[in-house]
Amino acid sequence: MGTPHLSRPARVAAGLLSIAIAATLSSCGVLARPDGDAAGTANAGATASGQASAQSPGSRSSTSPSPTPTPTPTPGKGPDCAAVRCTSVLVTGDMLVHAQLWDQARADALAAGAKGLDFGPLLEGQRRYIAKADLAICHQETPVAGPMGPFSAYPSFNVPPQIITAAQQVGYRACTTASNHTIDRGTAGLVRTLDALDAAGLQHTGSYRTEADSQGVLILQTAAAKIAVIEGAYGLNGQTPDFAWQVDMLDPAAMIAKAKKARAQGADIVLGVMHAGEEYASVPNAEQRDAAHALVDSGQFTMIYGHHTHSVLPIEQYKGTWIVYGLGNGITELSPTYVVNNEGLLVRAQFSQDAAGKWTASDLAWAPSVIVRGPYRWCSVAADAPQGPCAGPAADAATRQRTKTVVESMGAATAGAHELLITKEK
Fold first, then answer.
1. 3-class SS at 17?
2. Each residue of 280-320: pLDDT tens digit?
3. What whole-number distance in Å separates Cα of residue 218 and Cα of residue 174?
4. Strands lying side by side in the sheet with 315-318
5. Domain segments of the chain: what residues?
6. Topology (CATH level 3) of domain 85-424
7. pTM listed for this prediction
């Protein structure tokens, strides 16, 4: 469980042709540099685009009109794409590792004839959902220790880094890292976590090694679009980082400024991520609502989502933009006191580009989940139950209904959000 607290104090790319060419060069993530250049595929795409538009000897003169490029259809993964271009993003809640889970990982490794810790079986149920999206983003809530420990859980986390390896292996490409626990182990723990993410090949944003890094923007490339991720946490459990820039805080003005930078650097889609709220609540608090609405009002964000409360929260469509207030837990131990702590929400948004080049969320789908014990596993309780029963038919139905009631309590169903049934998809 997170630490309780008392208060909560595009620009579209130069042309469809250059987007298509850039997309063929790489499907890897892009970390935009503070100076405005983008590493990896962004620069490569710009270079390729320029070369593609240059005329070769013997071509028509520069005064002749050039043919309008034909957009390359890019339907992406997920539901049918009604537009020329679509891309989908999947997000999950807090990866909160307690001793019960690393004991399970040790038992799973031993069962496979290996030593150490294996979190793969714990996360395996998420794989089939991740496979139905172009990009999956997790939230690494706590710092990690070295591979051999020592490990600790609540209230000052220092968890096994093998959870990060498992997240990458199940299909995640990036994780957010700003939370109330980010500096539980000081700067050393923060840096150790970023090193582990880098070693696993996972992009990240929310906490930083250097001030220069903190000024950059994480931009992730899919075949159809560049997707920026901008996060902020409500607080640090009363702890003070060595440097203020080490962790992104929930400051709408700062997040909007970063979103504008992302747009200037070519981001097509900008996701705002909030780590905030009242623990075990079923409604967002004033800080969450005010911050989310401010981000939407700026016109810079394509979707907002959040975590921290260890409970599923409602989904709202505000001025045409989706706000997923709380995803609950991605993974956690089982709480005998708070049943909502054992539940989570997996959300997949499909984004489509219209004729004017603007990207919006054209489909929003959610799947309810629960953590089961004996052994510990993440398990979907969606209506199609792709893996079969979790805690049993009656318990699964109760979890699904409880989640549905909360998710739809701010009009999400009327606005078009629906349950994700992957067994019915292509």
1. helix
2. 999 999 999 999 999 999 999 999 999 999 999 999 999 99
3. 9
4. 29-32, 217-221, 226-233, 269-275, 303-307, 321-324, 315-318
5. 85-424
6. Purple Acid Phosphatase; chain A, domain 2 (3.60.21)
7. 0.85
